[in-house]
Structures are given as C-alpha cells and as structure tokens.
Amino acid sequence: MIPRTERLFRLGLHGMPALLFAAVFVIFGIFSPRFVEYQSLENIVKQASYVGILSVGMTFVLLTGGIDLSIGSNMYLSGVTAGLLIQRYDLPAWAALAACLIVGTLFGMVNAVLITRLRIIPFVATLATWALGKGLGQMLTQSQEVVFSAGVTGLGSQEILGLPCPIWIFAAVTAAAWTFLHRTPMGRQIYAVGFDREIARRAGIRTDRALAISYVACGTLAALGGFVSVAQLGNINAGFGDKAEFEAIAAAVLGGVSLFGGIGSVFPGTVLGVVMIKMINTGLVSAQVDPYLQPLASAGILFAAVLLDSIRKGQLVRMNRRTIRVEEEGN
Prior knowledge:
Helix content: over 70%
Structural class: mainly alpha
Number of helices: 14
Order of helices and strands: HHHHHHEHEEHHHHEHHH
Largest sheet: 2 strands, antiparallel
Distance between the termini: 12 Å
C-alpha cells in the first residue's frame, strides 16, 4: 500500500510540466498585467504554432530514443523549393504546400534510410543531412531572399471561427499525432522501441519500421512547420530555420518527453513546452527586461526547467523501484 503523501508527491512529479507552465504564467502576469490579456495570449499561441508543429515531429523521434538535427535545414530546403516554384510557375498556395510537404517527406526518408539501413547513428546522420539540405537550398537560391505570393501569406493572417489559421493547423497536427501515438498499434510500438529496442525486437516488433515512420513524420512536419512560418513572415532568407531543431528539442523536453526515449506525449506535454517557451520570451518583453539580458534570462529559466524535469524523472524511477520492492515483499 503506497502512503497518501507519496501518492500526492508522485502526482506532483507527473504534473511537473503543467506546474511549471502555471508558475511562468502567474509570475509574468504579476509583473505585466497586459501579459494575461486575451489578445496577448492569442499572439503567443499563434507565434508558437510553427515551432509547435516542429516539436510534435521531434517528439516522434525523441520517443524512439533518437534525435533529428536536420529539421531547420529541411524547413529551408522545402520552403525555398515551394517559393521558387511559385515564382517560376505561378503555383497556387495549395500546390506550393503540396510541393513543400513532398520535399520534407523525402528529406525524412533520407534520414530514415541512413539510420535504419546504413546503421549510422541519428546524431551523425541528421547532422550530415542538415549540411546537405542547407547547401542545396543555398545553391537553389544563391543565398538570395525568396518572397512568397499573397496567396501564401494570406494563410498566416486568415481567421477561422475567430482564431488564426496557424493555430488551427497546430491543433489539427497535435490531435492527429496524439491519436496515432496513443490509439494505434504502430504508435504503441514507437513507445516500445524507445523504452527498450532489444526487448521490442524480441517481442516481434519491426523496430526499423517504427524508426523509419518516426523520421519520415518528423520530416513531413518540419516542412509543414516551415510553410506555416513562411505564411506569417512572407519570405525566406539564408538564415531561415537556423536553430529550429534546438527550439523543438527544448520544447519537447520541457513538456516531459525523455531524451532517452519511451516517455512523453504530444498533448499536453509538448504543447505545454512550446507555449511555455514563447510565453517566457513574450513575458520578458512585456516585463521590459533589458534586451541584452533577455537571452540570459530565457536561458536561465529554460535551464532551471530542464534541471527540475531531470530531477523529476530520477525521483519517479526511484519511487517505482521502491514500489516494486514493497509489492514483492508483500507477495
């Protein structure tokens, strides 16, 4: 029988991402009342939409115990491909989106082949494709800015039922990913592969297929996230997508996704992590923190959050081991 205090402590550990989110919200709300206004919150979620889509894709990969460092370059290559097709062939927005997603999916497939067929470790494989994608994109554009048509930029400002379209896209991606990971056999297999790949293989799970699906999904969502970002910015320059992979990883980890695989969820976990990062950035501006100190303050808050998450996971592992010993002694 687990004591009541331990049950409450365990519940608090499991809910740590939500508690961190609430703490950040309250603290910045106290320093800047405008921060908690509806329009401000809507802007935060809208700005977080494209990073959120990237983070959902990264969650697939992290759940397998892997990593994808190429999503920023994927965004750039798929985005400039769509932009150049619009310029040269006057494609409509839906056709440009389709082209963007095709390039992103192919990008993810290259990562999947390198990792599952050539047995290159994910860090090295995706670092190589990051350089490849960035180089191809710069070759296509000659490092020049690519401007998108009004049909694409209209997507970033259009509203449906009073909410900006990027928020709806983010919500749809999150719902589809959550359903796939928690309600389908393949989703459960992805968790199993991340928890222990060898045990999953012995159980009859096709581990390579689960890994390939994760990297292809990450590639497709990287392209979609890039397109949503372009719809809000209206152009792509040589720095587009830089450091996007680190934002996506940070958001997923803040939301409780383990870097070692097998633990985490896109909702509420990753979603809370994404919004929390944007909330910190916006809150620092609203609180009129010195612009030169904002990166340091933001990094400090993120470091503290990740440290707390690491402590949380260690405590949960120890508590689970203690519970197992108690149950064995009881039997």
